[in-house]
Design brief:
Layout (H helix, E strand, L loop, with lengths): L2 H13 L3 E2 L16 E3 L12 E6 L18 E5 L8 E7 L4 E8 L3 E10 L2 E2 L5 E7 L11 H8 L6 H7 L7 H12 L5 E7 L2 E7 L6 H14 L5 E6 L17 E3 L2 E2 L5 E2 L3 H8 L24 E9 L3 H12 L4 E7 L7 H4 L14 E6 L9 H6 L3 E5 L3 E2 L13 E3 L6 H10 L1 H18 L2 H18 L11 E3 L20 H7 L10 H4 L4 E8 L2 E8 L11
Parallel strand pairs: 12-13, 13-15, 16-17, 16-18, 18-19, 19-21
Antiparallel strand pairs: 1-4, 2-3, 3-6, 4-7, 5-6, 7-8, 7-9, 10-11, 10-12, 11-22, 14-20, 23-24
Helix pairs in contact: 5-6
GO molecular function, one term: glucosyltransferase activity
Catalytic activity: L-seryl-[EGF-like domain protein] + UDP-alpha-D-glucose = 3-O-(beta-D-glucosyl)-L-seryl-[EGF-like domain protein] + UDP + H(+); L-seryl-[EGF-like domain protein] + UDP-alpha-D-xylose = 3-O-(beta-D-xylosyl)-L-seryl-[EGF-like domain protein] + UDP + H(+)
Pathway: Protein modification; protein glycosylation
Length: 558
């Protein structure tokens, strides 16, 4: 038997990803299995996310929500597929320390009829087991829903996003042929720019400028989205730099430039930041800070937090220098320090010594979090909102895609751009502790409702779909554009029921689960006799095959 096949057979045992074993609840908190609530997108088969998630709210026998943690090991969660002996799924149960839990899981293969068991002292919770009927695709599976409206319904996307409506309202039409000539002339030499075309749900790109490494973030979200839903054909330009580019007035001819940040003085079309986008795509992957992990690392309970305003960062704006100087003058109210100097000269007599990096999760040991611009809007804002502290946000000309939906004094405490009222605001928060706490909770709820992975995918799709409707010329794969390939998924290939299966030997073997790789050596093909026939069953193409008896363990790759 080959090493590759042997590794594939052993992988489920090595991963150990079958269950997340959690013993009983702590004494003193008594949630009820029957009354406890469970909800969220991770309970629906048609919502495909890199990491799926749902919530558990512990409720006692009288029907009251628990507001403190009953213990991080209260609930046991298992996810299985009756058709499979093993399920390659990584599960994490995150205690939000407020009586609720966030359960997230990342699938590494595609399954049929997943059963999600949620247990409290061996009793099923709420309507457990929750059954995700039909095919449940993993993130790497290239199986787009052909109907965008159906996908939007499955995802529970809102009818519109205020920022998208505002951005696209500036354009009556979009002439792609004209843009393909004029935009590179205006921005291509001095800026880092990508020219994208999505055609037949395939992604093509051409880059302009020297520093185009950030293209990887845009490539990644486009590839992920096209694996989930068929995008309309479209052609657009993405700014890879920090600063928005289109500075012309609305009365002048403006060009549609997609950027990760907007400002009151520019006319760019704003997308979710590359930082937030990557955190969604790489949740339970290569990032440790994401919109889920931060909810489980919110520091001590509100009464036990340090009643001091907190900030750490680098010297990327003059106001940050003023903030640190203010902290040195009022250390009893404000703890602000630099971890790095890059833009300004480091004068230790003014700004103090550099301090060591602090884990973002440790920020929430403090009640008051300061969000102040860097080169543009500070991209930490989503994570600050998701925590358990109240955000003091600087008034700013820069904004992210969701700022227009935030309300001062409801979701955050506003501070002037020059920080002139910062100490006054900190004093107000100290004197109005309960009100500050309510603002913190409202900001946290906003993040849960608007900044999780499902919302980010909806935003991108609605943006592309709305932009495509403005196009008056045909999107084209332009000269020198290259295809952005979907990543190979040879280890756990999926069988997409929406695509017609090719009548080939390779498909027959791989869809049958006999081999994990779709690349079969010629020497191997010569060793067996195989008959393949495709049959139609309920509109879905499946393969049946039979071979002259050969023991699968005797296959030899030469």
């Amino acid at each position: 038997m080959t090493l590759g096949l042997f590794s594939w057979l052993l992988l489920p045992c090595c991963l150990g990803l079958l269950t997340h074993e959690i013993p009983g609840a702590q004494a003193g908190s008594v949630p009820s299995a029957a009354k406890t609530l469970v909800w969220g997108p991770g309970l629906e088969a048609n919502i495909v996310l890199p990491a799926r998630f749902f919530y558990i709210q512990a409720v006692d026998s009288s029907g009251k929500n628990l507001t403190t943690s009953p213990g991080e090991k209260t609930f046991e969660v298992k996810i299985v597929s009756p058709a499979e002996q093993f399920t390659r799924i990584w599960i994490q149960v995150l205690d939000r320390h407020d009586g609720s839990f966030l359960v997230r899981y990342r699938m590494y293969a595609t399954y049929t009829d997943l059963h999600i068991h949620i247990l409290l002292k061996n009793k099923h919770v709420a309507k457990s087991p929750f059954i995700l009927k039909g095919t449940v695709y993993h993130e790497g599976c290239d199986c787009p829903q052909p109907n965008g409206a159906v996908w939007e319904t499955h995802m529970h996307c809102p009818r519109s996003f205020p920022q998208i409506d505002r951005d696209l309202s500036r354009y009556a039409t979009v002439d792609l042929d004209l843009n393909s000539r004029e935009i590179p002339q205006r921005f291509g030499q001095r800026q880092s720019l990508c020219h994208y075309t999505v055609k037949d749900n395939k992604v093509y790109v051409k880059t302009f400028g020297e520093h185009v490494g950030f293209r990887i973030f845009m490539d990644a979200i486009l590839l992920s989205l096209t694996r989930k839903v068929k995008l309309p054909d479209l052609e657009f330009f993405v700014n890879l730099g920090d600063w928005p580019l289109e500075k012309r007035k609305p009365t002048e001819k403006i060009h549609p430039i997609f950027s990760w940040c907007g400002s009151n003085n520019t006319r760019d079309i704003v997308m979710p930041t590359y930082d937030l986008t990557e955190s969604v795509l790489e949740t339970m992957g290569r990032v440790s800070l994401d919109m889920m992990s931060v909810q489980a690392n919110t520091g001590p309970p509100w009464p036990d937090k340090n009643a001091t305003a907190f900030w750490r960062g680098r010297d990327s704006r003059q106001e940050r220098l003023e903030l640190v100087k203010l902290s040195r003058s009022h250390p009893n109210m404000l703890d602000a320090a630099f971890t790095n100097f890059f833009f300004f000269k480091h004068d230790e007599s003014l700004y103090g010594p550099l301090v060591k990096h602090v884990s973002f999760f440790d920020f929430f040991k403090y009640k008051y979090q300061i969000n102040i611009d860097g080169t543009v809007a500070a991209y930490r804002m989503p994570y600050l909102l998701a925590g358990d502290s109240v955000v003091l946000k600087q008034d700013s000309a820069y904004y992210e895609h969701f700022y227009s939906e935030l309300r001062p004094w409801e979701h955050y405490i506003p501070i002037r751009a020059d920080l002139g009222d910062l100490l006054e605001r900190i004093k107000w928060a100290r004197d109005h502790d309960e009100e500050a706490r309510k603002i913190a909770l409202a900001g946290q709820q906003f993040a849960r409702n608007h900044l999780m992975g499902d919302s980010i995918f909806c935003y991108y799709y609605k943006l592309f779909e709305g932009y495509a409707r403005l196009q008056v010329t045909e999107p084209k794969v332009r000269k020198d554009m290259v295809l952005v390939e979907q990543p190979a998924d040879d280890l756990f290939p999926c069988y997409c029921h929406r695509k017609r299966v090719r009548n080939t030997l390779q498909d027959a073997l791989c869809s049958s689960g006999l081999l994990y790789s779709s690349k079969l050596p010629t020497s191997f093909l010569a060793k067996i006799h195989l008959k393949v026939r495709c049959v139609t069953f309920r509109g879905m193409y499946k393969q049946k095959w039979s071979i002259v008896f050969i023991n699968m363990f005797s296959f030899v790759f030469n």
